[in-house]
């Protein structure tokens, strides 16, 4: 059944008395259109820039709307949206949102799974490089040259956020992560930040792709689909995601009686100067378990992440070493992964990382069971790819037919508005490290 299409125009200035009229997909305010299907998945230029006086602008808009209505017939105003966010709060929007303030740019991957043009949605955020590495930011600038023009509103904490700026932007909603409100979903209603926005009449929607990702990611993505009016697209991705996850879980369950879960040391943000930051209980620990591994960090840390001593890691001598990369600014090794990164440079940086004192002494490193993976897989349901990759590392015989590259290629082709193109995982060269030293 054909869905409704709501048509409005954006006037883009290209000089004092020049303008272009444009319609873009998925929106309801001046400057956008809401439509289903591939036809509206990319911006479409309606009129070339031309001198326009006030009267010409008014009639140009009317004529363009009449023309568009014959192509994409509208069935009326957007329907009211009622949803329950991941914190269990009932939230009402007068219509699907097309202007949102985003608490963190880490939400961009999830938005790109839920919407054909996520950059156009963002009325304000903390900025590209608040949490992203420069390679990631550079890649996004190439895809969206005007991305740095998105207004900055500060990080989503009471001491840095600019409430006045956000209110002035007139967003349809503010999108927050659970960790923006202290890490506990049940505390959302009591959050002073949430109360500030609601007092100003701005709905707040809380999602969680990180604190409890395996429990909350699918529902959080459904919430984004409801918020944006893209439920059908989100449902298609979730069918794909759940089918792939079920295949891994099912195969591990079938092999459970004979399955030996290898001990894993996940060296989080491994390019940093200090060893050894690791997942504890929660967050990335769930991905390790889902891939059939045992996280040695969870045996010691009661928090989602924390610091392990090098002595502890050496004493456990894990079966598999996994370094996460993506934040390599100022690191000695230069180990980084992500968009706009060449595999050749990743390999060189990873080899330098593995030559560090202590790390080089691990059996996993010397016996070819050392790997690296993009840290930002942890911030959206794209963690499916990371789990597939790790399943192959942890149980190469059980998952020999699993092809994470094929999975990522299908996600890029069918679901992801901002494709992942670059280097996202790496394997160490087999054999002893040059400076392994004594343990």
UniProtKB/TrEMBL annotation:
Pfam families: Peripla_BP_2 (PF01497). SUPFAM superfamilies: Helical backbone' metal receptor (SSF53807). InterPro entries: ABC_Transporter_SBP, ABC_transptr_periplasmic_BD. It comes from the Bacteria. Signal peptide: none annotated. PROSITE patterns: FE_B12_PBP. This is Iron complex transport system substrate-binding protein. Residues 99-402 form the Fe/B12 periplasmic-binding domain. Gene3D superfamilies: Nitrogenase molybdenum iron protein domain.
């Amino acid at each position: 059944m054909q869905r409704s299409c709501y048509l409005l125009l954006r006037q883009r200035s290209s000089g004092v008395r020049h303008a272009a009229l444009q319609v873009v997909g998925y929106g309801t305010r001046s400057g956008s259109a809401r439509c289903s299907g591939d036809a509206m998945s990319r911006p479409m230029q309606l009129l070339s820039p031309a001198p326009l006086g006030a009267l010409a602008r008014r009639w140009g808009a009317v004529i363009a709307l009449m023309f568009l209505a014959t192509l994409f017939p509208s069935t009326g105003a957007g329907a009211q949206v009622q949803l329950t966010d991941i914190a269990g709060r009932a939230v009402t929007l007068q219509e699907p949102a097309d202007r949102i303030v985003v608490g963190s740019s880490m939400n961009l991957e999830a938005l790109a799974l839920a919407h054909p043009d996520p950059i156009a949605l963002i009325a304000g955020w903390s900025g590209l490089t608040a949490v992203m590495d420069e390679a990631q930011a550079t890649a996004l600038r190439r895809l969206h040259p005007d991305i740095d023009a998105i207004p900055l509103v500060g990080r989503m904490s009471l001491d840095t956020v600019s409430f006045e700026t956000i209110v002035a932007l007139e967003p349809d909603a503010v999108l927050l992560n659970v960790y923006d409100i202290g890490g506990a979903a049940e505390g959302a209603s009591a959050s002073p930040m949430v109360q500030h926005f609601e007092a100003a009449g701005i709905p707040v929607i809380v999602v969680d792709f990180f604190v409890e990702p395996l429990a909350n990611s699918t529902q959080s993505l459904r919430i984004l689909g409801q918020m944006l009016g893209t439920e059908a697209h989100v449902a298609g991705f979730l069918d794909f995601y759940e089918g792939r996850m079920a295949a891994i879980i099912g195969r591990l369950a079938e092999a459970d009686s004979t399955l030996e879960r290898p001990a894993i040391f996940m060296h989080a943000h491994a390019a940093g100067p200090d060893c050894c930051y690791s997942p504890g209980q929660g967050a990335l620990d769930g991905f390790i378990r889902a891939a059939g591994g045992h996280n040695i960090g969870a045996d010691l840390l009661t928090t989602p992440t924390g610091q392990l001593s090098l002595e502890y890691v050496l004493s456990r001598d894990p079966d598999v070493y996994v370094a996460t990369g993506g934040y390599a600014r100022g690191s000695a090794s230069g180990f980084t992964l992500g968009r706009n990164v060449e595999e050749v440079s990743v390999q060189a940086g990873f080899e330098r990382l593995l030559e560090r004192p202590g790390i080089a002494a691990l059996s996993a490193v010397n016996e070819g069971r050392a790997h690296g993976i993009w840290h930002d897989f942890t911030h959206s349901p794209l963690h499916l790819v990371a789990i597939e990759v790790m399943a192959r590392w942890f149980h190469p015989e059980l998952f020999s037919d699993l092809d994470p590259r094929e999975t990522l290629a299908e996600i890029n082709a069918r679901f992801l508005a901002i494709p992942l193109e670059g280097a996202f995982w790496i394997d160490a060269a087999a054999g002893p490290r040059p400076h392994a030293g004594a343990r």
